[in-house]
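Reviewers of the previous submission asked for a worked example of the structure-prediction workflow described in the proposal, so we include one complete record here. The input consisted solely of the amino acid sequence. No template or homolog information was supplied to the procedure at any stage.
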Amino acid sequence: MYHIAYIRVYNYFSEQMAVNKHQQKSEETRRKLLESALRIFARDGFEAARLEDIAKESGHTRGAFYANFESKDDLFFALLEEGASRRLKSLQQRLEKCSSLQDRVKVLRAFYLERAADPQSMLLGLEFKLFALRHPKMRARLAAAHQRIRASLNYEALVKLLPSSWQPEQNETNKVLLEVILTGLVLEHAYDPKRISAKQTVDTMGRAFDLLMAPQPNSNKR
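From that input alone, the workflow returned the following structure tokens.
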């Protein structure tokens, strides 16, 4: 009787170990496919990127791709959601540790400089915008993806941690200008790194941030 019970317990834990091992392997395959897709999309663009190249660079087969994603569109949206969620969650965690407005501005500045130093992610972001322009029928899916991102990280709580000039009800001109400058700098560096180096890209982004975030007369920033 005890022998039978032991066998059952052993079989149960063996099955659980096998399931966990399979799950870990699947998660590792998915991670490698996403990393490969990030490089390929940033290098070739969404339209020209081939599933064969993404699978090959990840060290897996086309079959492994379809075991994790339904299509290239599906992979593209997974990159959008996971990348944006990861960056915003990191920003929120860092802002929550700040005890003053000055510290929050420093964290926000560092956030923009880190993005300026990450051309792959920035170029992928540009691909998302081009994708939306070229595929207007997919904009509803893009909007749904952004809603899921906001819901996954309590976006309202994140916004409350930002300076008052970043609040939705305030003028967002500076925020838009920073995004335009950031995208332009990264794109120019990718196109002609001899004209503007990686260091110059980051330094210029820092100067732009300091200029646009300089305290204004009669400012009510928190």
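The chain is about 75% helix and 0% strand. We consider this example representative of the routine output the project will generate in years two and three.
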